[in-house]
Amino acid sequence: MPPKKLPSKLTAQGSSSLNPPPTARSYRQPVPTPDLPESDSIPPLWTPNAVPTEVFPEWTDPSTLPSEHWGTAEEPFEDQLSPENLLVPTEAIGYKEEITWKRPCEFLPVIADLPVVPATPPPVVPEPKAAGGKKGAAPTAKKGEPEPPKKPPPSKHAHVFLPRSKERDYGFLRSEKAGASASGTVTAPSTASDLHHDQEWRIPRDFQRRWSPEQIDALQAWGREEERIEREQQNRERVYMGFEDAIAYIVNERPRDLLAEVDFDADDLVDDGEDEDEAITGDVDVSNATSPWGVVPPPRIEVAPNSVYKPEIPHGEIVHADMASYFRIVEQLYTSGDESIGVFPNSAPFLWQAIYPQDSSGHPVYNAGGKYSVKLFVCGRWRRVDVDDRLPLDSDGNVVYLASSMKNEVWPSLLVKALYKVMYWLHPNYNQSAEPDARSISLVDGMCQRMVQIMLTLTSWKVSRWEPGISQSFSENIYHQLQQFVPRTQQPEQIDEPSELSLEADSAADGTAEIPPVVEEMDDKPATQSRPKPRAVICSAGRDRVADLVFGEAVLVIDVVGDTGNTTFKVVHQGSPAAISEEVTGVNDLVFLLVHPLLQYSDTFVRAWLPNPESSLEGAPLAPFETSRVHFVVVTLQDRVAEQPAGDNSTEISHKYVNLVATLTPVQVPYNPDQSVDNLSKPSALTATYLGVDPNGSVILIEEKEKKENSRSSLPVIVTLNSTFSGYINIPAVDTGSIVYRMYPQNTLRYGYSMQVESDYKVAFQDAPTYWRSLSNLRVMECDGTYPVMLPGSWNVIFKQSFELSPLTEENVSPPELRIDLHLTEELLGSFTHISVVNDFTGEVKRAATLCSKISLPAASNDGVFTPTTYTLIVDCAPGDFHVRQGKWKLTLASDWDITKPTTHQMKMTRYEGVYEPNKPLLCFRDVIMAPKNSIWTSFQLQLLQDGAVVNNLAAKLEVFDLGTEQNPKIGEVSAKGDVRLLQLPCIPAGEVSQPPVDDKRGYILQGSIDRSTCIVPDELNSLRPFRSSTGRTPVTTTPVDENESSEAAASGESNLPATARSSRGSSGIKWRVNCWSTEEVKLLEDNTKELQYEAIRASWAEKAVDRTTNGAVSRLLYLGKLDQAEAKMKQDNMTDEQIAKVRGRFEWVQAVKSKVAAPEGISESYLEQDGTGDEKLLSEDELAESRHLLLERIGVVEADKEQRRVARALAKEERAKELKNMFRTVIEKRTVSLKTQQELKRELAAVQTRSA
Q1: How confident is the model at residue 165 (pLDDT cuts 50, 70, 90)?
Q2: How far is Cα of residue 51 from the mean position of the Cα atoms in its chain?
Q3: Residues facing 721 on adjacent strands
Q4: Looking at the whole model, is its pTM more than 0.85?
Q5: CA 345 – CA 23 distance, rounded (Å)
Q6: How far apart are CA 913 and CA 945, in angstroms?
Q7: What are 1073's strand-pairing partners?
Q8: H or E segment at 593?
Q9: For the domain bounded by 908-989+1001-1023+1067-1086, which CATH number is listed?
Q10: Contact at 8 Å (CB) between 425 and 431?
Q11: 172: burial class by Cβ within 10 Å (0-12, 13-18, 19+)?
């Protein structure tokens, strides 16, 4: 029997006087860490398939540009962007192939400059004599020599902009009798009109129009008359020439065509009124009755003049009408900055004022070099867009773009070309002529997108979509809600309401049509407190004409009248009052928009590609912008409260709501179908599918909710911004604090985007550290570092950050809340990176949902009072099948508790591998962590491998035991399929003993195994053998040794065993690998605690068995009749001759007693007699095989029964799931029917109440 007490000198680990057992061998080997490639040789995770077409520079003073910037007449500027890539008006799509692009000098005549009246020359001042000429001075002609000829200025073919006051100087005005001038402009009928068009913020003349149907009929009639006149003139010419030929034949006796040239008289023989022969006077008889040669002259043929008036000026539809309507809206809403007149204050240039070069009066001038710079609001900044002067012409030589009614005034066309160049830069994949597909947006959305971007680019105004809210009653007209965006006006004269849109063609063609004077009712409040409101705009979205509006044309709403189903929208269409009737045209093809004025506060967030700094070439490729940190939109409210004047209560009304307008402008790249979809577009496509956002780029704003009493609601506000419309948010304001939205940009915005936010309160974009520092209740801590190169399929601990959180006051009644923001150089690496926070004392793990998130942490408490608690933040990354180059990380932590003792731990990896040998506890290894011995900042990963790949159908388990305690209790355990990760060693709990263990006994035991509780372990991985042999005795067997098994045993370190022994473990083919991450190299030592305990017990037994006369092994050999082996065994055990004699005598006595007892049949000695009911014998190999075969058959029957039951359970589960699904569907349908019934009953009740009222 075993001893009652172990020897006192035996220890669980360390030196021992006993020899270690033969099984205590090195069963695992350290593996060197793999060589990492150079970081520069690894491509970034995101490689763009294309590059944005151009980056427009920010606007600077044009006077600082060099003269070479504007080009020359000899070498005119030519835009790099091909004109064929630019958009064309909708009506020109059908004949786009026929459009030609020409400069004004190629299709317009030369314009003669005005004569310059020289002023009185100044008196000649003699130049002072100099000792010598200055270096570099211009050469002067010597005395007596002529001056060198000056280079004549280039000819002028167009006016970029011509004010009304200068039309008469250039001779473009016509007299009232003439009716029309060659230029096609019309004189204003009154002085008041001239004064109106001389205003700075008005378009001086009408745009180019097409011929009206009446004018087309007149032109056709005029053409027919011209053809008649030409035919009659040709007939008269033939008659007169026949008479002349007859006279010439009589005089010259031969036909006139045979006369010599010297004899031919140029004067006609018959005066047809077309020569200058004055010899024939009135007293000469030239009647038809007299002729000197007897030939009667033909009668005089008169040709009647053209009696049809030829139209000079087109009075029909405007060419490029949608763009003209946008310009008119800008004209109607634009002011010079006076807010008191009730329209939009704006500091942006007004239409033509954005075109450069300009003269001293601020008007753009003609540039013979063919280059113009346009100031436009692009991607959140005022930028310079350079275009050439090539304009699109149709087959008749007319400009296809929006143009002035004065043919040689080109500012509208240049401005449209610059706008379309920006449109192509933002949306290069938009194809006007192709049908919309899955990639492109719809036709209506594309039209709205262009309108929104054009208004934004021209004036920086934002345009959002308006949709009516829910009606409070059946009789309420929902479109009356639009009146809040229509100014209250007082009309001096009542204007008849047309049933449809009517255009006053004559006045519009003359450019004299004015908007009806509008006087907005202003409140008595100071102007500084009045908020400019958005203005309502209606845009036509029908393929056919809608209320005489073409597709994409927009009109400004000035009033909404009428009842439900008969709403009339009073609008201003191309400067004339008109109306749109819901009863006649409907509203399905109308899009209601809101044009927002510039609010008091604004901020811009821009991410754009910049020129590559590594190359100095002009055409160098662009470099992507760096990944930005998480940003917030912060609307501050308390600043506005502080600005309220004393005794003024008007701010209470203004603080009921907060207006916030947000606009997103994404940049796209040209689409190439031959290129594969990059790894940024794939997740964006999934996001667009499931969230219903724009796949070309969108930003989601989610309100940040704080645990405050003044919170408006429990659900956050979510706003989705796309490139089609701006987002308009009108939310109730809180008394103090801020309204905060977090930005979630889509990955496809990686090619560049800008976001602009405007509000009537202070608004700004702030990154996470800035925003958190602005909160008074938060403490912020920042740190940074670098992460190494990472291999595909590896698990890496980037770094660990330990810190302590302490309550600010003893009154803290809530656990700490930690805000985390981790920024990585590689944006896509965030999807493979995880953040965990571990409580160092309890080991509880909290995982962050994203790299920028907020989590609540458990804290230690003493009698209900929170105490300082230490935590460790762990950042780990598991890349996919790609390498990761070296990069940088930045970490920001913020908490409502005080953050102290921050320490960053950089990690290094140590790796061990081994072969799994089947054993009963399914252990892979059991080691003592020798270094770092007492540090908890160590992470482990256990992988089960087969043929180099992770076995996912097996569960790996890591267990941690306390080395310093006698019984080695388990203090931590993790398990997972395939590979398991232990983020941090648990803290060793303090023992109940008064004296803690000494330092050499502190530490951890790490054990790795296969977890049979969470997976099915194959038979080949099971064994009855222990993990390691607990006895030093060699197993003896008579079975021959298999060569394969002997080689495996030799490879596993069993070569010291005798040749007659072999292991019963089969080949598993499973390897295990443990990856260790710590601040220093991890060292493991095999844990031989159990082996030493068993060896001590065996040694104690051997020591006590010296004086014993019995030995189990010897008795077994004697019973088998192997006397020689029994005697050898006894001698091996150092038994004396006396002991050997006693053992042999006892065996001989037992044999003799058995033989005597077996002789007489009547004597029964049951304690010596063998059981005769069973035949105990050694089975042969064939019998063993047959028995095994029967056993396997029984096992197969049991397994088949288990499989049948499993299938039956699965089928029953499916049936129950179907029944449950049908039940849910039935409940939903019943609820839907019930809701519909309730709604019908409510409607009937409301109708009854209305009738009763």
Answers
A1: confident
A2: 16
A3: 699
A4: no
A5: 90
A6: 10
A7: 913, 943
A8: strand 590-596
A9: 2.60.120
A10: no
A11: buried
